[in-house]
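Thread amino acids onto this structure.
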């Protein structure tokens, strides 16, 4: 026995009809009920990425009686840690160890392969649990809103990242890398991840990147990547760590436009320290004459990356058959205002760039999950106050669904802890009535069984995990991911 609670149909102890019934704990808890405490507060978390797991972690730590069930659409957990973090950043993925400890806690259960909003409604979850926390992230793309963005050769960064990281829904992407120049729109960390993956020597990519992506990158003809932003050097969204990785990327050299940094030195003194350090490194890269050793390295480089500032897309240009991109038309901007609040204003000038690949990295966005849940379509978030969904007692949100897609994993951790604190406060104040018994997963399992949905438990996931690591070891990689839901379910159910 794993010691974890398992999904049981409500009243299955009386009827004995479920195949899960025989998998109860042998112990009896304070309410005299095997394995499940009917009088325990029951919380459902929708989504098993960082927001979901950090919310669950804090709830379990804050109250010794709370039971948390995490529902996930895919058969595998960890969300963007698995499918979003760059494959050459394995240290960032170490949070999986913390999440695994949470999932193995006797008061936490994972149910993968359950599509909330389709297999089970939010209203059904709210009837079964004292509190429901929506933590399903931002799976949509912000569109550029320009002609030609649906041409072949144009991709969202989210889908491109999903392709090389093994997200099942992105495995048909098969991007055509038979071009010399790629343009990435956006200058955040995701944009730099994509640029690095496109330009990195393939020996650096012997990570958990998928084998099909690795094979495509080995054959890639991309030798030049332009990373384009609508504002100036002092407004870029990336962090210094990611920029430094670009500077130090083997077999590449930077091409920066010296004029872009006019007047920047004078403004440095007023910048916050992280922004100041990043701007100084950009200036050094753009303006300083490299030392002899660095100059020699750059002279030998076969690939080039460049930042282009004060540019916005106005059209993706097509080939004569009008079915594939051959370039991008950019508006030339000027800045009004200064600092973080500076606005990009078109000057009326345009610039055409020849390229065969355009990747839009202008942001992810959350999507509504269920008509019963309030949703601000303009901000693409669930309207909330400290994670409490407006006008809906007992319903909460955390992560990017709560704030929009900003920050790093540590930002999401703090945001999720704040939501968990709101849940605990509401339980203690009586806003959420935990004195009334709720069936939790016992009732939901009955609904799922009737609907032919077979959840994947955390121990089922561990079978997938073990196989992926074995496959990776055989090819000199830390992991070789399963790439389809069908494969995942087949392994999970062995």
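Threaded sequence (494 positions):
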């Amino acid at each position: 026995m794993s010691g974890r609670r398992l999904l049981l149909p409500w009243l299955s102890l009386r009827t004995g009809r479920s195949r899960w019934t025989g998998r109860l704990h042998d112990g009896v808890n304070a309410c005299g009920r095997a394995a499940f405490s009917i009088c325990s507060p029951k919380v459902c978390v929708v989504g098993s990425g960082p927001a979901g797991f950090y919310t669950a972690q804090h709830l379990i730590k804050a109250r010794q009686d709370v039971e948390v069930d995490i529902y996930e659409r895919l058969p595998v957990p960890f969300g963007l840690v698995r499918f979003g973090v760059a494959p050459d950043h394995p240290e960032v993925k170490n949070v999986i160890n913390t999440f695994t400890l949470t999932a193995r806690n006797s008061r936490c259960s994972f149910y993968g392969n359950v599509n909330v909003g389709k297999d089970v409604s939010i209203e059904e979850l709210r009837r079964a649990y004292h509190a429901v926390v929506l933590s399903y992230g931002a799976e949509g793309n912000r569109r550029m809103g320009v002609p030609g963005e649906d041409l072949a050769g144009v991709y969202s960064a989210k889908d491109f990242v999903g392709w090389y990281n093994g997200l099942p829904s992105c495995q048909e992407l098969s991007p055509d890398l038979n071009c010399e120049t790629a343009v990435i729109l956006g200058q955040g960390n995701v944009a730099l991840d994509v640029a690095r993956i496109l330009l990195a020597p393939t020996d650096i990519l012997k990570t958990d990147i998928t084998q099909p992506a690795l094979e495509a990158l080995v054959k890639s003809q991309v030798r030049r990547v332009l990373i384009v932003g609508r504002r100036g050097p002092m407004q870029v969204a990336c962090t210094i760590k990611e920029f430094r990785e670009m500077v130090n990327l083997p077999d590449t050299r930077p091409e920066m436009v010296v004029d872009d940094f006019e007047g920047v030195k004078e403004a440095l003194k007023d910048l916050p320290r992280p922004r100041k350090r990043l701007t100084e490194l950009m200036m050094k890269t753009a303006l300083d004459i490299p030392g002899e050793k660095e100059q020699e390295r750059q002279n030998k480089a076969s690939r080039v990356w460049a930042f282009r500032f004060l540019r916005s897309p106005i059209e993706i240009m097509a080939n004569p058959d009008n079915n594939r991109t051959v370039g991008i038309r950019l508006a030339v901007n000027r800045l009004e205002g200064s600092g973080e609040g500076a606005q990009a204003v078109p000057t009326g000038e345009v610039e055409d760039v020849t390229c065969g690949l355009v990747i839009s990295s202008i942001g992810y966005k959350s999507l509504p999950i269920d008509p019963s849940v309030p949703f601000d379509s303009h901000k693409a978030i669930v309207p909330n106050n400290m994670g409490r969904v407006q006008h809906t007692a007992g319903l909460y949100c955390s992560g990017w669904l709560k704030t929009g897609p900003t920050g790093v994993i540590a930002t999401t951790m703090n945001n999720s802890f704040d939501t968990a604190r709101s849940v605990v406060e509401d339980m203690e104040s009586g806003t959420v009535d935990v004195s009334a018994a709720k069936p939790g997963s016992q009732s939901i399992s009955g609904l799922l069984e009737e609907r032919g949905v077979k959840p994947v438990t955390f121990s089922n996931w561990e079978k997938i995990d073990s196989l992926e690591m074995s496959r990776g070891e055989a090819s000199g990689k830390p992991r070789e991911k399963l790439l389809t839901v069908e494969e995942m379910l087949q392994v999970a159910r062995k």
